[in-house]
Structure formats: structure tokens, C-alpha cells
Amino acid sequence: MSIPHAAGQERVSTATAAPAATAASPPVISSVSPASGSPGGGTAVTITGSNFNQATAVRFGTTLAPAFTVVSANQITATSPAGSGNVLVTVTTPGGTSNGVAFSYASTPAPVLSGASPNQGPAAGGNTVTLTGSGLAGVTAVRFGSVNATSFTVVSPSQITAVAPPGSAGPVQITVTGPGGTSNGLTYTYVASPVLGSVSPNGGPAAGGNTVTITGSGFTGATAVRFGSVNATSFTVVSNTQISAVAPPGSAGPVQVTVTGPGGTSNGITYTYAAGPVLSAVSPGQGPVGGGNTVTLTGSGLTGVTAVHFGSVPAVSFTVVSATQITAVAPPGTAGPVQITVTGPGGVSNGVTYFYVGVPTLGDITPASGPVSGGTAVTLTGTNLLGATAVTFGGVPATSFTVVSAIQITAVAPPGTAGAVQVTVTTPGGTSNGVTYVYAAVPVLTSAVPGQGPLGGGNTVTLFGSGLTTTSAVHFGSTLAAFTVVSDSWVTATAPAGSAGAVNVTVTTVGGTSNAVTYARVAGPDI
After folding, report:
1. What is the pLDDT of residues 233-249, one digit of tens each?
2. Total-model pTM
3. Could you write out the DSSP letters of every residue in 5-58?
């Protein structure tokens, strides 16, 4: 924990005395940075060493630092007081007072650094770094850690350019030294060059365009991927150990793939351009996740192909039909796209996209019944319905259907036989489960009791027959009547008012409109 201390005061303990304990080790100073500062004081000085816990005072000569902070047992930051000449910096703790380390009050203020650009570079060095700050006129040395810059130029009192020396991967402090002493430090990070371990595939068509996975280390911040001297068409740093790059066009033969980053350029890995197989199309472009379907691959340079892959999975089997065509049996796969590639003496081809399609499922059909004559428009809902090639009602193709979306199809029911059938959907992913659809027979009326009634209506008429469960309307002639479905063979209706004479009574159900039975309108007696 950092412990700040009030300006110009020693820390005084007010705690109740505790039993005697083992004496604390005295503090030890190994260095102070910077080792010089302005006579007016105010210089931020970092003191490193050991046993700094519970420090009560920091002195520059005999003068207390106006403020200091115990950063850790090994580090204190202190503000120098005003002074002159050379003095010894000491630290006091309950364990005693440390050795003294020299600090000089310079008549000329020490230089101050405020920025370094870039703040990282290759471990091999050689790159130019621009330092900005103040008091840089007359600087006599620039160091990266403890190593002198290869060269440097004082551009102005506020800018220096320096050539970084070689260094080990990791951070160092850049400092400059002038008549007034050594500046504060700025962090500069030496970055190791990227290292390549492999490229996959390690060859491809001279036309380029195939994706290559580069594995290794030190890829973070990569700025270029080259195939020989040609930049990759594009690349993506996936992680510190992997890059995905699109190969540019090239001439048949081997080239070295390299990666350039802040740490420099990597070793090379051989990649061979071959006038090898090229795929242009796959038909069909999709199939079931269970595999087993045959696809036709077209392209060029297919003679001598030794492998066909769907993603990373080999085809169940394949046949080279000619230099421009291969037939292959798709293996099982997971729903979604994969790249089909072929491998031949010329290397691995480009990929063509093939989609594994999940088996369709049906969850509902609305309406779930209709007349045996067909013609009913139904809506099917489910999943994986895109690309549907057939809708069947008990094995009979729908009169027509439209794929609305991946979860909905509308279809027109074909004619059928009274009873329940299973409706299924077929797509490149296979055939769905079935949902029940009922073909309803046309209702049949056998009688109306009573067979006559008054012109004013209002009397109850019982209609007997069959297929009456789904009755949706009862007509006396063209006039609708109120009704109640009692059973599949019995409906009661309230006769509407009408004119004298006979009318046809019909019922309408899902199965259609029934035959008619006669009902007579009788005028009342004259008085």
C-alpha cells in the first residue's frame, strides 16, 4: 500500500507501546533516479532498495524531503527540497537510517521527457524514436535502459530523434542526460519478432483467393503478411498465435510467407503456388445433416484428385468423372455452411460453399381440417422450412404451396378421402414429422322434424343425418337459422319466418354443404 507523508515532517507514532519484538532490518538504498535536480527543489525522485516499510523520513543531506510516498518495501518516491552542491539521500525507518546515495543539485535543471513515439520497436533495434520534452539542448547521452542509443540528434530544446539499440523483449526506461543531470524515464517496449510455425494449407491455386491459417507467436499488432514479396489480399489477426490471410495471386512454385509486426519480420514458411485444382460450383449446394446425398463438383484441374473434404471431414466416397467434374457423397455434418475442397498433386483447391440443412419440423397446421374435395388453404408452421421441395397430404402432393419463411409455409390441400392424414414437408434437409389434417366428408341430411311450420317461424326443427359435428351454418332456403349441434347426427334449428310453400333446408360443415331436405311453410287458419 502506498503511504504518503506530510511535507517536511517525520512520521511520529502515537500507538500504545507493544511488547518488545525482533529488531527491524535497517533500510538499504541501491539507487536514486534521477540523480540530480534543480537547486530550487521540486524534483520527483524514485528511490529503490529494500526494507522501506514504515519509513519515517527521507533526507537530502540534512534536509527533510517536503513529501514522500512509500510505494512498496523496495521503492519510495520523494520530492527533493531546495539545496545546492552534492548531498546524500537517506531513508529512516524504525530499523535505522540507510546508507546514503549521492544526489547533485545542478545549476542547470535536468532535462524532462514527456513523450516517446513510437513507444515500442523490434528487439533488433534500428528504428528511429522521437523524444519530446524540455531542457533537451546540450543533451550528451540517450539511453534505452542502460544501453546507449545507436545514435541521436538534438533537433531543438524540445525534441530529440534517437536510433534504438538492440534490446531484450520487454519494457525499458528511456532517459537523456544533460548538463543538469539525467531526466525522468519514459517506458519503451522491445517487441520480439513474430515467429511462424506453420501455414495451412501450405499450397493453393496460382489465382490466389484461398484462405490460409498461419500459426506461430508474436502476432499481436501485425502490420503485414506477405507471400514472397506480395502482400496478402487481406488478413485478420485472430489471436497472438493465429492469423487468417487470403493468399494473393502468384506464379506456380514456392514462396516464403512472412509476418511483419512491431518487433520486425518473422522467419519464412514455404507456401507453394500450384496450377492445381480449381472448383467453380457444387450442385446441389445444400443437403441433409445426415449426409448420404450425391453432389457434383465442377471446375478444372481435377484429374488426379486424391481427397474431397466437406469442411474438415472427408467425403464418404468420390469419383473423378473427368478433368472438370467429380461426384462425391456428402458425409454427415452440422447444420450450417462448410467449404468443399479437393486435394490433388497441385495442392488444395479453393473452397465452394455447401450448406448442411437441418431436418424440417412441423408444429402446427391451421385449419386442421377441410372437405374431401380439397382446395382448403392451410398454414404450416415449424422450423427449417426454407428450400422446401414438397408438401404432401398423406402422400398426395399439395395442389400448390408457398414457402413464406424458414418457419412458415402456406399450402392448398389436394382432394382426399374422409379421415385423418399426415401432412409432411420435404426439404434438402429431409422429410419432416407429420401433423394431422382431417378430410371431412360432405354432411348428409335424412329428415327434418317437423317437416312444416308457420309462416312466422320461431318453431324448433330437428335435423337428422350424419357428419354434422362441425356444422357452421343452417339455411332455410337462403335464410340463415339459429342452430345447436346436439351430436354428429342431430342438429336443432329455429325456423326463420318465410313465405308459404316449401323450402330446402341445408347444413354447412368443414366438409361442405349437405343435400337438402324439404320444409313447408304453412299459413295459419282464417277466422
Report:
1. 999 999 999 999 999 99
2. 0.42
3. E-TT------SPP----PPPPPPEEEEEESSEE-TT---EEEEEEE--TT--EE
